[in-house]
């Protein structure tokens, strides 16, 4: 291992990365170290004794502003990921002693070539080229390493860390709005971004949405002027569907998360690993941030007009989520029901309107709400959103009647 450390330029006394001819040797040495650490418990223990995590961070700092060394960064990050996965002590060392959070966030910024327009806003070029395969692989490894470094951060974090977490969340917003070289790579990139966002304290996720710029505000006004003045609903639809705007806020990142969630539902398999992280993230965002909840409610639970079919029948996002409320996997069933319940502001009557009593019974029983009421969290009041179709059909739907303290 000491020979490999020397060949990989991981010795702290070796400062130079000048000889391009040595780069292939550095990469192959890092690959060997990855394989050895992954397969050998003795090597894992030696990694602690040799302070390998600190050496890897030092090498990353040498690489930070250098071009044409993505392979070195990629396997350096992969080795950091393996070490932090196999040793919980290294996670703490990376987080506090080695300043791994800002270092790895800067690596992501470099991979995405981010240009900041404000403290937590980056310029997004929707017509720009996709990430290269090397940049994508490097970003994915950095996301995985950051996940290990920040695990449990949403539970315990210092107030002084909020700025760094907001910067990371802003970088992840940028990540959600760009694409990789292939559709599969884009999905892998976004999947790792979702996992990492789940570690961000929910109070710092407000940077996922941002106010419109002056140019976007002008474009919004132009869009409205092009529509007939009496078509208010049409105007709302154009704004939300074409520019993902809600209450003057740019909702592009939330829209990407919602689309990502629907694709995972449509896959029809591996729900626990593939679907529950993004559902949990959207649930927590909705619970903590009013604008996000209202936008998601508008997209997932629009005013109810189809009152002839059962809630689980159909191809809308609502129909798909309602079907998950009776899934055989308890974790999947719970998080799908929880998401819809939060969108309904934890009001039982609203949840029953959109999902039906049979589909909601499991959640209500677990919450002790079979007799009606609402959950423990407080939400602002909304206006009545019942459509004429729903009001006319409501008496025929049977409703939920109280009988001896229970509902039928």
UniProtKB/TrEMBL annotation:
Residues 378-408 are annotated as: Disordered. One of its GO terms (cellular component) is cell cortex. One of its GO terms (molecular function) is guanyl-nucleotide exchange factor activity. It is found in: Cytoplasm, Cell cortex. One of its GO terms (biological process) is G protein-coupled receptor signaling pathway. Its main location: cytoplasm. The keyword Chloroplast does not apply. Keywords: Chaperone, Cytoplasm, Guanine-nucleotide releasing factor. Belongs to the synembryn family. Interacts with some GDP-bound G alpha proteins. Does not interact with G-alpha proteins when they are in complex with subunits beta and gamma. Interacts with GDP-bound G alpha proteins GNAI1, GNAO1 and GNAQ, and with GNA13 with lower affinity. Does not interact with G-alpha proteins when they are in complex with subunits beta and gamma. Interacts (via C-terminus) with RGS14; the interaction stimulates the dissociation of the complex between RGS14 and the active GTP-bound form of GNAI1. Interacts with NCS1; interaction is favored in the absence of Ca(2+) and myristoylation of NCS1 is not required. Chaperone that specifically binds and folds nascent G alpha proteins prior to G protein heterotrimer formation. Also acts as a guanine nucleotide exchange factor (GEF) for G alpha proteins by stimulating exchange of bound GDP for free GTP. This is Synembryn. The lineage of its organism: Eukaryota, Metazoa, Chordata, Craniata, Vertebrata.
């Amino acid at each position: 291992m000491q020979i490999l450390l020397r060949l990989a330029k991981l010795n702290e006394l070796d400062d130079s990365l000048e000889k391009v001819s040595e780069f292939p040797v550095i990469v192959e040495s890092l690959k060997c170290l990855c394989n050895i650490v992954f397969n050998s418990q003795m090597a894992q223990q030696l990694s602690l004794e040799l302070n390998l995590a600190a050496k890897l961070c030092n090498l990353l700092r040498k690489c930070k502003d250098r071009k044409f060394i993505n392979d070195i960064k990629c396997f350096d990050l992969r080795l950091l990921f393996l070490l932090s996965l196999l040793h919980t002590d290294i996670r703490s060392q990376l987080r506090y002693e080695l300043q791994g959070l800002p270092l790895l966030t800067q690596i992501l910024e470099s991979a995405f070539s981010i240009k900041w327009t404000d403290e937590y806003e980056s310029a997004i070029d929707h017509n720009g080229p996709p990430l290269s395969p090397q940049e994508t692989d490097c970003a994915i490894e950095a996301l995985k390493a950051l996940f290990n470094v920040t695990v449990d951060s949403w539970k315990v974090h210092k107030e002084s860390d909020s700025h760094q977490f907001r910067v990371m969340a802003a970088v992840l917003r940028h990540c959600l709005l760009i694409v990789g070289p292939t559709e599969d790579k884009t999905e892998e990139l976004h999947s790792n971004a979702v996992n990492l966002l789940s570690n961000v304290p929910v109070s710092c996720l407000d940077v996922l949405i941002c106010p419109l710029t002056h140019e976007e505000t002008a474009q919004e006004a132009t869009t409205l002027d092009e529509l007939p003045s009496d078509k208010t609903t049409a105007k709302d639809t154009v704004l939300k569907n074409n520019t993902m705007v809600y209450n003057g806020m740019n909702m592009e990142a939330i829209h990407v998360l919602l689309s990502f969630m629907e694709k995972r539902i449509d896959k029809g398999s591996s729900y626990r690993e593939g679907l529950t992280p993004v559902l949990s993230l959207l649930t927590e965002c909705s619970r903590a941030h009013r604008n996000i909840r209202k936008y998601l409610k508008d997209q997932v639970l629009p005013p109810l007009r189809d009152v002839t079919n059962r809630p689980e029948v159909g191809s809308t996002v609502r129909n798909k989520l309602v079907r998950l409320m009776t899934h055989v996997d308890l974790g999947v069933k719970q998080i799908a029901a929880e998401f819809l319940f939060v969108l309904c502001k934890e009001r039982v009557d609203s949840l029953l309107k959109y999902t039906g009593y049979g589909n909601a019974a499991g959640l209500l029983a677990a919450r002790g709400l079979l007799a009606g009421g609402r959950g423990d969290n407080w939400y602002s009041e909304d206006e009545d959103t019942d459509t004429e179709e729903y009001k006319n059909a409501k008496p025929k739907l049977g409703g939920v009647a109280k009988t001896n303290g229970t509902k039928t």
